[in-house]
Each structure stands twice: as structure tokens, then as C-alpha cells.
Amino acid sequence: MIIIDFHSRVPLYEQIKEQIMLLVQQGLYQPNDQLPSIRVLSKQLRLNVNTVKRALGELEEMGVTYSLPGRGVFVSENALGNKKIKQDAAAKLKTAMQSAKAKGLSKQEVETLTAAVFAGKPNS
Amino acid sequence: MIIIDFHSRVPLYEQIKEQIMLLVQQGLYQPNDQLPSIRVLSKQLRLNVNTVKRALGELEEMGVTYSLPGRGVFVSENALGNKKIKQDAAAKLKTAMQSAKAKGLSKQEVETLTAAVFAGKPNS
Amino acid sequence: MIIIDFHSRVPLYEQIKEQIMLLVQQGLYQPNDQLPSIRVLSKQLRLNVNTVKRALGELEEMGVTYSLPGRGVFVSENALGNKKIKQDAAAKLKTAMQSAKAKGLSKQEVETLTAAVFAGKPNS
Amino acid sequence: MIIIDFHSRVPLYEQIKEQIMLLVQQGLYQPNDQLPSIRVLSKQLRLNVNTVKRALGELEEMGVTYSLPGRGVFVSENALGNKKIKQDAAAKLKTAMQSAKAKGLSKQEVETLTAAVFAGKPNS
DNA sequence: GTGGTCTAGACCACA
DNA sequence: GTGGTCTAGACCACT
């Protein structure tokens, strides 16, 4: 389910975080569902255990998952009701938008892009 | 004219690049205008010369500026007509936007953000 | 009577220990009273037998209970007269309190918390 | 300045976090002060670089510090105005207090302890 | 089996 | 020089 791009400059653990959040947001993992174990994930993704561990650790810090030592990692109750996550995403988006503006993209072009992205699956 | 945010996680040399491109984009620097010298810039911005050098070097590589050894650095004719630059920025923006959508940002929230970013100086 | 919080980071066997000590402390179990058998407890709490076994084993080691092989587990005479246990708890509490103070909690906030914790059943 | 107890069961990175927060809270490190580099700290404390890195990473996550790659780690503006830190400490204190109650400490004993802890340097 | 902690050491980007 | 990422592998506590 999770696909890692080893050539991307985005850190591997960030890619894992993103994709797991996506799976949760899509409802493929429900609250209190157990995620695959760290060891299983690391084998599937061909990554070191510590890299996966870091991803899950940060997801836990963000309130998306919780871990019970000796038992496993689980999806939190209000996994994505979290404000922090949205703020984070908004901040990153703003940075990208400012950069785009500096490089000559017009407001209209951005709006067209926005429409395109939000077309596929209506989200609001 | 150029403002560096020392608290930002964006590399200093990237900030310089962004800001110079923005100034060009806004027409404050016209094609064939001379930019301040590296030494002047590094003093103004209180940055290491190497950092400024790297920024200008990459701008030249991108075709935004050209340098005449012994004379200085100048703005290229087609400084921002370069399609590749815009495409790159657009691609990154799209990724950030998709991620933001996945994390629950609504289309409206993105539009509000767009308006905010493009508020300063109308651009389109 | 015993409630296990599966979401808590406190080990399950520690939770069992705590709760049994609390019941004894509150006088609901008198010295020489028999505790429910390990099997009964593990079914009630939906826990692995080994987890319950460990909890009772440690209680016995602490002198809170004693077991008569083939008969069951019983509350000791001087179950909580044991000074070492209290001292241990007091030391940990002190550490946590100092840390809380260092992080800006006021004396009043701690007192409010104390009142809340000791609210359920008056104890002194 | 920082003292690590290698025999404690508290994780080393937690000890580092605690002590740095303490130094900040005491005003020995002011906002925007630069902390010793990770490598220097790890040599001083005779710890692995990664352990120190983790401590500083979590402090950053908590908003106590911020790091500028290539430059160093610095104390945040409102390092300890942070609500999250207090909530964390309060939660830990509550757990310790419940445990103490279960082990027979009376409300009065806790209050005496509170008074003792908050005696040294008045904090509220 | 599970996750948590720690070490040792490599490589990268940034200033 | 700085911090950031990643790997490999050890040991521990808990279920």
C-alpha cells in the first residue's frame, strides 16, 4: 500500500508519515485499528527499522497514532481532527505558494491549479 | 530591499534567490540592470560571502542572471520567461496542495491562503 | 472492581498492582482475605494469565500478599505498613513534583491536582 | 552543567531534555542563545551523538528550542511560556500522585511534600 | 512476538 | 564547522 520513492529528496520517514496519514484520512485505517508492526513495515518497505520507528514516533507525537509497547501501534480516536496537522500543511503550502509567486506564477495560474487538485474527490 | 528570515528553515541561499526573483518578477529590476555586488549584498544582509555567492551562482545557472567578470552581475533578458522554472514551482505547489487536501484543508481555505499570498502587490 | 486502561502507557501488570493495593488501602480487602484466583482475574480483566501472574508475584515480593500453593492468594497482615513501599512512592512523587515546579506549575496548581486525586474516597 | 545518571531507568534523552529545560527555566539560557553543538554536548556527556540529537529534536518539537542546520541549536523566544510543557508535567505528576495514593500515602503527607518542594525557591 | 532505548558510524546539505 | 538522514545491530521491557 505504501510506496517509497528512494530518489526523492523528501526524507523517507516523511514519506511514510504522509502515506500513513493518507491511508487514515481515506478511512482505510479506522481509529483503534492496529497498524502493521514496525518490523513488518520495515521489511515490506525495505527500510531500516529505525527509519520506520521514527515515522511512527512522529505520527504519535502528532496524535495520529498511539503505541502500546509489547502490543503494537494503533490509530488514534480523533486521528485527523487534529489542528496541528492542518496548520502544518497550511504552513508548507504557503511557503510553496510564495516560492511559486516569486518564480512568476500568476494568481490565476494558482487558482487553476487549486481547482484541478480539488476536482478529483470533492473534499469540502 | 531583501529581507532574510534567520528563523526560517529555508536555506539562506534559497531565500536570497527567491527574493531576487521576486524583485525581478515585480519589475523592480529590469533586464540588463546591474545587481548589487556580492560584497555589498553580503554586508547588507549580514551573511557570509559564500552564501550570497552560491545564491547568485544558482540564479545564473537558472538563466535569471548573467555575470560579466570584473563588471558585475546583471539581470537576463528573458529572466523569468524560462518555462522550466515555472513548471518546477508549479509541480512543487501541486504536491503541497495535494498533501494539504489529504490533511483536511478545504478548497476555500486554500483560496483564502492564495489571496493572502498574492495580496501584497497585485500580480495578474 | 479493577479497571484496566488499555490506552495507558503504564504497564498492565503495574496497573493491576496499583489497583489491588488501592483496594487494600481502602479496606475493601482486609488482611487474610483471599483475592480472586489468577484465572478468574485474567478472565475478568481480559488479560493474559502471565500478566496477572506477574502482578501478583510482585505484590507477594513486596509483602502485600502471600500465597498458599493450592489454596490461593491472600492479603498480608501488614499489607501496607511496609515503609519501603511508601518511601519509594514518596520519592517518585517528589521527583515528579520538582520537575513540575521547574516547568512552571505553581504551588496552587499542584494543590488543586492533589485535591482532585484524593477526592474520590477521603483517605486521611 | 548537565549531569547524566547512567543507572537511572529514565531514558538518557529524557534526562537531557529535563536538564536543558531546567537551565532555560532558570534563565541560564536566554531566548535566542545558542546551545552547545550536538557534537560538543555528546562528548561532554559521553553519550552517542544520536542520543543528544533525539533530546534536542524533542525539545524542538515542544517548542523549547529551534535548530538552524549548519548553524546550531537555539533557545526559542517563548521557550517556557508553552502550555504543552505544563500539561505534560501535570499529567506525569497526577500519575505519580495516584500511585502514591494507592500505596498508602495520605493527603496530608502529599501536602507536606508539596510544601517542602515549593519552599526552596518560591515559584508562584 | 511487540515497541523503546542506545550505540557506532556513514553520508549529505548548509554556513 | 553545523545539524539532518539513514543504516546496522544490540539489548531491554512488556504481552
Give structural notes.
- 4 copies of one chain form a homotetramer.
- The first copy, chain A, is mostly helical.
- Chain A folds into 2 domains: 64 residues, Winged helix-like DNA-binding domain superfamily/Winged helix DNA-binding domain (Arc Repressor Mutant, subunit A), CATH 1.10.10.10; 35 residues.
- Chain A is built from 5 helices and 2 strands, in the order αααββαα.
- Chain A has a two-stranded antiparallel ribbon with strand order 1-2.
- In chain A, helix 1 crosses helix 3 and helix 2 crosses helix 3.
- The interface between C and D is large, with 40 and 37 residues.
- Chain A binds a DNA duplex (15 and 15 nucleotides) through helix 3.
